[in-house]
Write a structure and sequence with these properties.
This protein is an alpha/beta fold. It has two domains: 244 residues, FAD/NAD(P)-binding domain (3-Layer(bba) Sandwich), CATH 3.50.50.60; 137 residues, FAD/NAD(P)-binding domain, CATH 3.50.50. It is built from eleven helices and 27 strands. It has a five-stranded parallel beta sheet with strand order 5-2-1-9-21, with helices on one face. Helix 1 packs parallel to helix 11 and helix 2 runs parallel beside helix 10. It binds flavin-adenine dinucleotide. The site of flavin-adenine dinucleotide has 36 residues, from helix 2, strand 2 and helix 10.
């Protein structure tokens, strides 16, 4: 197959994967700025405890499957909102689902790097909970979970109320750790990580806009696993593109990577660093002992040769190590022992280890963990979170019906990475369950193949950039519409 045909068919495959995400009943819509709307006000078929009145009033006619049960979902991000919707769609009207989400509006991290070069606004990335409440009859409660009692199957919310459950789905995303001499307050006000889209994304955009001509921007990348493997390299490219376009051709983007090498889309990011953004991006791998002064912005680190290096940039964007949200000592997730995985050697205790057949915690019964908070061998990505949510929803519905989970789940992952303001690369993979390791592994040629890797775009192109919107809108519709 010649190069053109290979790339064309890969693109088609990726589009098919994106299209397959949207089941026939889900319309494709763009973003919504309707955030702010209080879902519970317009959805009155449940009492304050979240218990349903009979014959609940959803615009989607849900089947009465005969299954009954009470599921609480913590976190209304990519994983949580998807599992809530599909539990109702597949489980039917007798499965009561309550979604607890801190914020009235979700801001997508996906595409948020495009805020930095002014291609998008933060508000264009906002999604509301009206659909999941009104269309599917999910009870949405805007509060934070502050306590989790897995013995009595009860969660306590920040408004003081309790919710009991038969099954709990934990999908809170990540928290960012104090690192490199920086605190949470420094991230909020001086050295934003902007690795959760929102005010920090705006702050970083403002700092970039205020950079002097031919100034220096430093960003750091934590050791894997971290949220969105290609994301930091994508950010480096977009910042470089912006700086050389508006702030001088000898501007510098110094990328300090705690990993030994680029973690995703190696060929295309190498091409971007060495050719497209040549002379602007300075990629330095294998750094350690990072220290950042939030006031002077002075950065120091140890390089691969063991030498101490000091830099004095104008703007610093640290992406600190992260962990399952709520899992720091004394927080609600830690007290539930969900991330007590240090001893089993699977993770370092930052993530909640799960069985990938049903996403049930290996530590606590009837609790499932999906999305970035889980440790399951799949990349921490929004598209993957959507897939994990569906496998989990299916497994919970089966369990309520007295069945075993699907013994051979399959998930796909797709991700577009803008390289400039109008070109992009992409990465895609199909993951299949490997019964010998009890993990999900990249599949190739229709089956498990040793050493198979995710496929990246054969080139960086403007047409990839155009397809990116279709993929993004389809994914967000499948989760939020
Ligand atoms: C810059 C950037 C670019 C990215 N690009 C891509 C991409 O191109 N493709 C891709 O697939 N992925 C991408 N990602 C990754 C993607 O955003 C995450 O993997 C995804 O959001 C994870 O979903 P989640 O549901 O686990 O967490 P989140 O989406 O973060 O959702 C967690 C939710 O839980 C809520 N919550 C937390 N604690 C509580 C509590 N105690 N009580 C109630 N609610 C709570 C939060 O408010 C939040 O709404 C990107 C990430 C970044 C930062």
């Amino acid at each position: 197959m010649n190069k053109f045909n290979a790339s064309t068919s890969r693109r088609k495959l990726l589009m098919l994967a994106a299209a397959a995400l949207s089941s026939g009943i889900v319309p494709v819509v763009g973003h919504s700025d309707d955030g702010g709307r209080e879902d519970n006000e317009s959805h009155n078929d449940h009492d304050a405890e979240g218990n349903y009145a009979s014959g609940n009033n959803t615009t989607m006619a849900l089947e009465n499957t005969g299954l009954t049960g009470k599921v609480v979902v913590i976190g209304g991000g990519m994983a949580g909102v998807t599992v809530a919707k599909y539990l109702r769609l597949w489980g039917g009207s007798g499965i009561q689902v309550t979604l607890v989400e801190t914020n009235p509006t979700y801001t997508s991290n996906i595409m948020s790097n495009l805020v930095l070069n002014n291609s998008r606004s933060v508000s264009s990335l906002n999604y509301g909970y009206t659909n999941v409440a009104n269309k599917y009859g999910v009870v949405v409660k805007h509060a934070s979970v502050v306590r989790l009692d897995t013995a009595s199957k009860k969660v306590t919310l920040s408004d003081g109320s309790d919710l009991t459950y038969d099954r709990l789905v934990v999908a809170p995303g990540v928290d960012f750790m104090d690192a490199y001499g920086l605190t949470q307050a420094d991230y909020e006000t001086k050295t934003p990580h902007a690795w959760r889209a929102g005010p920090q994304t705006e702050l970083l955009r403002t700092q970039l806009a205020g950079m002097p001509i031919n100034g220096t921007f430093v960003m750091t990348i934590p050791k894997s696993p971290y949220r969105c493997p290609p994301g930091p390299y994508e950010r480096a490219c977009l910042v470089a593109d912006y700086l050389k376009s508006y702030k001088g051709s000898t501007s510098k983007v110094i990328v300090l990577d705690e990993n030994a090498s680029i973690q995703a889309e190696v060929a295309n990011f190498t091409e971007a660093f060495q050719n497209i953004h040549r002379g602007v991006i300075d990629y330095r791998a294998g750094v350690s002992n990072l220290q950042i002064n939030p006031d002077t912005k002075a950065v120091s680190y140890t390089d691969q040769l063991g030498l101490t290096v000091a830099i004095n940039p104008h703007v610093v964007n640290p992406i600190p190590p992260h962990r399952a949200a709520g899992s720091a000592v004394g927080e609600w997730l830690a007290s539930a022992s969900l991330n007590n995985s240090v001893s089993n050697g699977v993770t370092d205790g930052r993530w909640c280890v799960v069985d990938v057949l049903n996403y049930q915690s290996t530590a606590v019964a009837d609790v499932h963990v999906i999305g970035d908070a889980s440790s399951c061998g799949l990349p921490k990505a929004g598209h993957v979170a959507n897939q994990e949510a569906k496998i989990c929803a299916d497994a919970i519905v089966r369990a309520i019906g007295g069945q075993q989970p699907d013994p051979a789940p399959v998930a796909n992952s797709a991700c577009y990475s803008p390289i400039t303001a109008n070109t992009a690369s992409w990465l895609t993979a199909v993951y299949q369950y490997d019964a010998s390791t009890r993990k999900m592994a990249v599949a190739a040629n229709g089956g498990l193949t040793a050493g198979a890797k995710a496929t990246e775009a054969s080139s960086i192109s403007a047409s990839n950039f155009k397809q990116m919107s279709t993929w993004f809108n389809t994914l967000m519709s499948d989760s939020f519409a």
